[in-house]
Amino acid sequence: MTTSPAPALPPASIPPAIWALGFVSLLMDVSSEMIHSLLPVFLVATLGSSALTVGLIEGAAEATALIVKVFSGALSDFWGRRKPLAILGYGLGALSKPLFALAAGSGLVLAARLIDRIGKGIRGAPRDALVADIVPAAVRGAAFGLRQSLDTVGAFLGPLLAMALMLAWDNDFRAVFWVAVVPAVLAVVLLVVGVREPRHGKARAAVSPISREQLRRLSPAYWWVVGIGASFTLARFSEAFLILRAHQAGVAIALAPLVLVAMNVVYALAAYPFGRLSDRVRHDRLLVAGLAVLLTADLLLAWSGHWTGLWAGVALWGLHMGMTQGLLATMVAEAAPAGLRGTAFGVFNLVAGVAMLAASVVAGLLWDTAGAPATFLAGALFSALAAAAILVGPRRVVQREQPGPP
Q1: What residues have CB less than 8 Å from 354, skipping those under 6 apart?
Q2: Looking at per-residue confidence, does 220 or 200 come out higher?
Q3: Is residue 8 part of a domain?
Q4: Would 117 disulfide with which of 65, 251, 342, 388, CB 3.0-4.6 Å?
């Protein structure tokens, strides 16, 4: 017996709090990407760091963010509150920004990245659980896609602003890093005044969500999604290597942020439509299609010696992100009990964090020892392996169950 797809609902059915959370993400991403779009070149060209150092910093920073999410997610479930942890996380992100402007060596850059990513880790799982708490199941994919799309708008506005300021201020990295403080502070203010956390119907006894008894409530379907998420992370290392590839291809320092602009424009345009699509079609097909797109991007970035191949690979990388990132969040939300959503997002990101650290370190080693093409060929190999794992996995886990009426 088959179930008819749930009817697509208009964007107006998405609660205003989701829009507010999206604009909070947009502002923080403007701030973060103003810095991150320049940071690899700043480290290599100004501070004299190696590609391996870039890989270690990026891998450690992103892994820290993802690992911290497991604790903040569990705490939000135990406490029954999501918003205060989100405020703390965004606040730490804002406080870290001045350190980049003050850095005279890679040590302080690493410290700033870790503080920034600890903040991201603290806010990430509670924020995603808050999205799932606010919206009805019938528009959950669209809600995650919308928040991700607005987040990604910030991710290309930030590099555009950084590039404009670099051209205007004669490649003054530190002045650009100081400007990045402003949107970060605005993001915290908007979160405080613009988002109201829904109240739960009845009080419940506080139970540790990471106890053995509670973790048993996470189904095999959930753990399969965790495995899929880890395989995706192994296949997609830090975007810092896209910037280095462009710099290697002759893109001027001031124009290096265009790489993230191009990637994130495609990402932003794709995230919401594919989020809505995920409310209506089987998840395994979208996942495999996304990996096929990433594999193609890696091959273009590995083999193409012309700028058209570089930009096509970057655009396909962004399309892959738009197809899969909101979908994976939706799959976590659907596979986890409502009272364990924060923990579920946290554990998912803990595993992905370990994979991110490994992927970025391997990418840096391959870059230094075998060259840039080897780095992207390794990514293509992991993409193919991840797609094969999904195709042979249990279909009932990756196929979406249609929600009932909200």
Answers
A1: 63, 66, 67, 230
A2: 220
A3: no
A4: 65
Range of the domain at 80: 16-194+218-398
Q: What is the mean pLDDT of residues 298-310?
A: 80
Query: Does residue 256 fall inside a structural domain?
Result: yes
Q: How many CB atoms lie within 10 A of CB 199?
A: 7
CA distance 173 to 101: 8
How far apart (Å, rounded) are the C-alpha atoms in residues 339 and 361? 35
Among candidate residues 390, 109, 59, 370, the one with its CA nearest the CA of residue 237 = 59
Confidence of residue 391 (pLDDT cuts 50, 70, 90): confident
Whether residue 336 lies inside any domain: the answer is yes
Reported pTM = 0.64
Residue 402's pLDDT band, with cuts at 50, 70 and 90, is very low
Task: Give residue 66's pLDDT.
Answer: 66
Using one digit for the tens of pLDDT, what is the confidence trace for 112-171? 888 988 898 888 778 888 888 888 777 777 788 888 788 878 877 888 898 889 888 888
pLDDT of residue 285: 85
Is residue 7 domain-resident?
Answer: no
Which tokens belong to 259? 């790489």
213 Cβ contact list (under 8 Å, min separation 6): none
How many domains does the chain contain in total? Answer: 1
Distance CA 220, CA 15 (A): 31
Asked if pLDDT for residue 46 goes beyond 80, the answer is no
| Cβ neighbours around 113 below 10 Å, total | 25
> Which residue has 């396909």 as its token pair?
316
Other C-beta atoms closer than 10 Å to the C-beta of 405 total 7
SS3 helix, strand, coil % of the chain, rounded to 5?
80, 0, 20
